[in-house]
Amino acid sequence: MKDSELNALVTLLDDEDTEVTEIAEDRLMRMGADALPILEHRWENTDDYLLQTRLEELIERIRLNDLETELRFWADMESEDLLKGMWIISRSAYPDYPLEKLRADFAQMYHEAWTQVGIHGNAIDQVKQLNDYLFRLKGFGPNETDFHLPANSLINRVLETRRGNPITLCVIYLLIAQKLGLPVFGVNLPNIFVLMYRSEVRDFYINAFNKGVIFMREDLEEYVSQLPITTQENFFEPCGNLEIIARCLRNLVVAYGKTHESRARQLKRMLDIVSAYA
């Protein structure tokens, strides 16, 4: 569609006839992301409050539809790419954040971890070296003052602030560890997310929310036994990327639930998409 036709459709958005505006909105929705530049330009340059409101709502709907389509494709075809899944979540709040920036940041951290720390020795030694890099040199740690802050679940913000929640800190840890060739995987425990190191000698667990402290299976069993739930074997086994993304989305639904209901509904739809594939 030519720009002139697009502009004509945008002009119809402030028509007094609601049927006309609905037709214009429907055609713009079907155009998807291609319509965004003109819609955003018009939104920035109009003083008409009603038109600006309609434009803002339409832009949000198009972005959401585009995001849901991308998430559905990721869940179906690309779920092995955990970083991309985390990026899609971040785009719910930062729609223009580039994936290339995120990949470059992780490539830099991998390079630093390999050259500055080195990953040598036995399994415990390797984890201690990675802990030193991530928690001492890079300064990553828990956001204990505002645990439910939405930014704690957005990986781009965690990279900027160095503060996150259990799942984002674990994701950063396991992405670097796996790139280094370490057999580290996510473990989707009730109430907390941790990591497992698959060792030829003995598996052990890592709490990235507590500076990478190491603990054993019996420690987890004792923790779970104190919860009002029935213990299941899968509590202690590695989980897949779909489960990781679903848990991250679930955290965000809770975080936005009382302060931003429309955003919470958006994230709940995204959670439903991922849950259908998990």
TrEMBL record:
Coiled coil regions, renumbered to chain: none
Stretches assigned to the Protein SirB1 N-terminal domain: 102-250
Superkingdom of this protein's organism: Bacteria
InterPro entries, per the entry: SirB1_N
Protein family: Belongs to the UPF0162 family.
Protein name, per record: Protein SirB1 N-terminal domain-containing protein
Organism: Fulvitalea axinellae
